[in-house]
Design brief:
Layout lengths: L1 E5 L2 E3 L5 E8 L8 E6 L5 E7 L5 E3 L7 E6 L4 E6 L8 E7 L9 E5 L2
Parallel strand pairs: 2-10
Antiparallel strand pairs: 1-3, 3-8, 4-5, 4-9, 5-6, 7-8, 9-10
């Protein structure tokens, strides 16, 4: 199993980024995929999930700003992040729900 996140970087407050998570080694379409993040000095925080039927769920702090989507043909999950705030600064990880499979993470820094 391999999960590879990409798309992180430095962005100004109010800006946008799109993260990608490319998956391989398992039947991608059957699993719920989660995004989680770890801010400096804090624990791992669940951000959002996309279920096998395409439905999504978000933590309150990102509702209306973040959108998770998936492309089962490409085995990729995306996280579109808009109206970014400094408190969104973190390492973002994609994780396969119900397993210990996760990627190495991608750094998102929101700063002026």
């Amino acid at each position: 199993v391999q999960l590879v996140e990409s798309g992180g970087g430095l962005v100004q407050p109010g800006g946008s980024l799109t993260l990608s998570c490319a998956a391989s080694g398992f039947t991608f379409s059957r699993f719920t995929i989660n995004w989680a993040r770890r801010a400096p000095g804090k624990g791992l925080e669940w951000v959002c999930s996309i279920f096998d039927d395409g439905e999504a769920s978000y933590t309150d702090s990102v509702k209306g700003r973040f959108t998770i989507s998936r492309d089962n043909a490409k085995n990729v999950v995306y996280l579109q992040m808009n109206a970014l705030k400094p408190e969104d600064t973190a390492v973002y990880y994609c994780r396969v729900d119900g397993t210990n499979w996760r990627g190495q993470g991608t750094q998102v820094t929101v700063s002026s």
